[in-house]
Amino acid sequence: MANELNKLSDKKVKALYGKPVSKIEFVADGAGLSAKVSVAGGVSWVFTYRLDGKKLNRLTLGRYPDMSLKEARKLRDKCRNWLASGKDPKLQLNLDVQSSLKPVTVRDALEYWIENYAKDNRANVVRHIAQLEKHIYPYIGEMALSDCETRYWLKCFDRARKESPVATGYIFQMCKQALKFCRVRRYAISSALDDLTIPDVGKKQNKRDRVLTDNELGQLWKSANEKKHIPYYNYLIRILIVFGCRSHEARLSEWKEWDFNNWLWTVPREHTKTDEKIIRPIPIFIREFIIELYSLNKNTGYLLGELKNPETISQFGRILWKKFEHSEPWTFHDLRRTFATKLNDMGISPHIVEQLLGHSLPGIMAIYNRSQYLPEKLDALNKWCDRLNLIYNKSDNIIILKVR
Predict the structure, then answer these.
(1) DSSP state at residue 7
(2) What would the mean pLDDT of 77-104 be, rounded to a whole number?
(3) DSSP 8-state symbol, 244
(4) What pLDDT digit, counting tens, does each position of 228-283 carry?
């Protein structure tokens, strides 16, 4: 093989270049690579091959001295690899050229991260895509990533910060992670966001400790049971309060997750934050309500009857405290903290509460203890529903709910 490869040298190619000949000559380097010498003395690199044993093909790789002998050999080896995989080197080389001529855009890079990472690892991927389509793509989405300097990103973040500084912080973190992912995988290179932090573009979410009082929770529970909101939110509020689930778990829930034979709700791993499914027993108190929901919404496929935009749901949850004239703000996410706090106050074992919330068990328990504690979880939820009934009866008889 040593005699078949690398027959040419830089000195010999330099001697061939610019020397007119009487007819076109091919000077072999080996393994399909030749230096083609034109009558005028020009030199180009040619790869000769057969595809599936058919006729001989000649593919021009480049011209000397624009392409050196070393670069021509590297490209020849690439063509041989394509050939060994059953691919036509001519077609593959054209694809490579087209790819290099079309730069990776900001949209390309972010969509690459979504397709190859976020879809499998982010529970809120639909929300992420919506945020990018609203705040990033319309302004810099079609810019070449290599040309998109920090100042262009900052204009997008500054614009979004006026609407929601905390959400802008999340968008920034997402974009920064996406660019790093592309860089590590050598898909595209950009360091435009490397030196920025959340305070530079938005605001970190403050650690919250808001727990609804019994009276506040009773008013909310009563308003949903007495259908004071549009149907979708009556359903959502009751599900969030009873199960202590994340709003997106309820929002995305489909009827195939609900087992009416064993009375279990199984949240699939793609809808969770821990990448593990969550199994929650359906408490006796709420089973009739779930059956009613099924009869109403079974044709849509969704527990709540439709798939609402996550921002719409968040906005509705953020203003409820004002409608009830509560003294401090709260959001739907605070219902999870309320659920956890009150169950612990009732004497429910902490590991049962954590499993109901969909949290991973700590330390080595997460590896070896795979029990779902279904009887214990059902007992906890049944007791919680009894508590909700008590809270309901003790809540104000008149619910002050402003309509705005």
Answers:
(1) -
(2) 82
(3) -
(4) 999 999 999 999 999 999 999 999 999 999 999 999 999 998 888 777 899 999 99
Residues 61 and 38 sit within 8 Å (Cβ to Cβ) = no
**How is the beta sheet containing 25-30 ordered, strand by strand?**
25-30, 33-37, 43-50, 56-64
Smallest Cα–Cα separation from 43: which of 70, 23, 25, 22? 25
For Cα atoms 116, 121, 125, give the angle at the middle one, nearest 5 degrees: 85
Cis before residue 65, ω within 30 degrees of 0? yes
Altogether, the residues listed in the chain come to a count of 404
At 164, list the tokens. Answer: 């929601």
H or E element, residue 25: strand 25-30
pLDDT above 50: residue 401:
no
| Gap between the Cα atoms of 245 and 281, Å rounded | 12
DSSP assignment string, 360-403: PPPTTHHHH-----HHHHHHHHHHHHHHHHHHHHHS-SS-----
Tokens of 58: 């000649």
Q: Is 28 helix (H, G, I), strand (E, B) or coil?
A: strand
Q: What is the pLDDT of residue 403?
A: 37
Quote the pTM value: 0.57
